[in-house]
Write a structure and sequence with these properties.
homodimer; 12 helices; 7-stranded mixed beta sheet; 3-stranded antiparallel beta sheet
Chain lengths: 355, 355
């Protein structure tokens, strides 16, 4: 497994993005978001997306260049159009607008329309937390992987929810979760390794529960969080539709369940994103919020564990640990991915730096 | 099973609340919220709470009268103090403030501090939906029932999330869910009936999974949504802490994990609530949002079902059906509860109307 230092990975991603024709002012931002994701151990959403984006460009699902437009703006709200480019830079723009507005009036929201993939949802609320504010971000998926409770066919994506809140001495609380039981990547990995998966993760093509990863990955579906009706999969399903409403209907995009199962070549993907920022000081001018969040998180970590070797964690702990480790040791890039990135570089006419 | 018409139940609840010394202007609102909850089939949060509230009053966990104060207010934000009374009326006040503000600037939020129980969370966002707006409401619980993933002791309550969005021709989308796998009431009911519960619902006193309802209910815990670590209970746990942060830390209350396991007699409960309202027209002035939500919900209901006898539902469908049926047939009040309500009436010096 090759270990690549973050700054080299950044340069490599930036070269590819520029070669694809991305607007210059978006290249650095996009590379920064993608490398940050890899640093935090979310391997499914960083450098590993380069070959996927290359394929999308070829199909016309993703357009570059894609100038970012602020469509409308009030003291409390902004709507940003991503022109069917990658979602990272327009989402940073939207979150920055929401942060500035929330600092002024206490809370603000921003929507991004006509977007595609924006990487890991957790990046954007962390920008708010870094500014001392709470942030949310949700996005709808475009790959129909998930079925409604009692349904036999997938209708929506893994529709993640991310939330971050600022602490005082500690890193922020950062929740970043798909509204499915597990990420589709976990089912895929089990299929590749021919491992069985736990009951409740996935179904076969008819919507019946399966523990066979290959059956699930090839034509099956992922379950909403909860897993089965008796374990309240309607809750994961309900959260996913809440995310869908905020991401697509509110921004003026098309809801995933109302779009075709596979996007035709030449038609751009149509993801929407929604961000919200709230200033704790607007509620508590005395400023006690961040210090109490430290206390709350410390107290949760001190919960008596079932197994002393596995202490209780708080959302964001795992990613924070990964970021520290990988900043030193480098980011692992497996050989298969390395070969694919090389191919993407060659096809785009970008120098390959990871040889 | 006695069937009680909604207006009679309203009068009964109002008599008890008034006899307890509740401020006159809060009695009608509180009774309305409680009866609405019973109409919608959420039997755990309406009339069945009367004997519970009576016990809390006796212990000093709940104070009446409890004048509502708006502690601070800006064009975007309100903070309401509930003076340790019941949470229904101050929460309606907070939501009404947020609705008025959101109509003016596009979005707004309100927090309620020093509150206790406020019934079913879904009532409050439905007020926003009735005004053509989207609403959220969350609250922290005060009964430590739920353990963090990998933990062996319960640290927080069932911390529900509610969200409603306005449709055009259809009732709104209404999600109202505890962040646990199932409500504690379901475990209690199984214990009473000596039925086994599915794996993943609950644990014993040491945090180990159990399917024995009595073991779970007497000293055990409820699991965060997901149920077990391998089925991503860290997601339900993460959502619950997000709710905790918004409800207690933001409003200036005490986070449940930082308070004693059992509230001492004489000390009021310390629940906090958080509400958010967003106007879809602030993002889409052309007004396409509600009609598209109709389409989205219809399309989801038309998903091919696994079993044709169990069609796919949308969040809120079950409660809407119950409300229609119970408005005609009346609200079922089981004999045990009826006897307890009678006792509460007698103790408070209120007339018993349900004989």
């Amino acid at each position: 497994m090759k270990l690549v230092q973050a700054d080299l990975l950044h340069r490599q991603i930036a070269l590819v993005l520029a070669a694809w024709g991305m607007d210059k002012d978006q290249v650095e931002t996009t590379a920064r978001v993608m490398v940050d994701t890899d640093l935090r151990g979310v391997d499914s959403h960083g450098i590993s997306m380069v070959p996927v984006y290359a394929e999308w460009l070829k199909r016309g699902w993703l357009k570059l260049p894609a100038p970012i437009t602020v469509v409308s703006e009030t003291p409390a709200i902004a709507v940003v159009d991503a022109a069917h480019g990658l979602g990272h830079a327009p989402s940073v723009k939207a979150m920055e607008l929401a942060i500035a507005k929330a600092k002024s009036i206490g809370l603000a929201a921003a929507a991004v329309r006509n977007s595609t993939h924006y990487g890991a949802a957790g990046y954007y609320p962390r920008l708010a937390a870094a500014a001392g504010l709470m942030g949310w971000c949700v996005t709808n998926g475009q790959s129909k992987w998930v079925l409604p409770t009692f349904g036999a066919e997938p209708r929506f994506g893994t529709n993640p929810i991310a939330f971050a809140a600022p602490a005082k001495a500690q890193p922020p609380f950062v929740l970043d979760m798909a509204t499915t039981t597990v990420a589709v990547g976990k089912i895929r990995n089990a299929a590749i390794e021919r491992r069985a998966i736990p009951e409740g993760w996935a179904t076969d093509a008819k919507g019946a529960p399966t523990t066979d990863a290959e059956t699930a990955y090839n034509g099956g579906t992922a379950t909403p969080l909860g897993g089965t009706p008796e374990r309240s999969s309607h809750k994961g399903y309900g959260l996913a539709i809440m995310v869908e409403i905020l991401s697509s209907l509110l921004s003026g995009g098309t809801a995933c369940p109302l779009s075709p199962r596979v996007t035709p070549d030449g038609h751009a993907l149509d993801n929407g994103h929604f961000m919200l920022v709230v200033d704790p000081k607007a509620f508590r001018p005395e400023g006690g919020f961040p210090g109490e969040l430290d206390q709350l998180m410390t107290s949760l970590r001190q919960t008596r564990p079932i197994d002393p070797k596995q202490p209780v964690l708080v959302a964001g702990d795992k990613e924070e640990k990964s970021a520290k480790e990988r900043a030193k040791a480098g980011i692992p890039v497996p050989p298969g991915l390395l070969a694919e990135v090389k191919k993407s570089c060659e096809a785009a006419g970008a120098q390959f730096l990871l040889g």
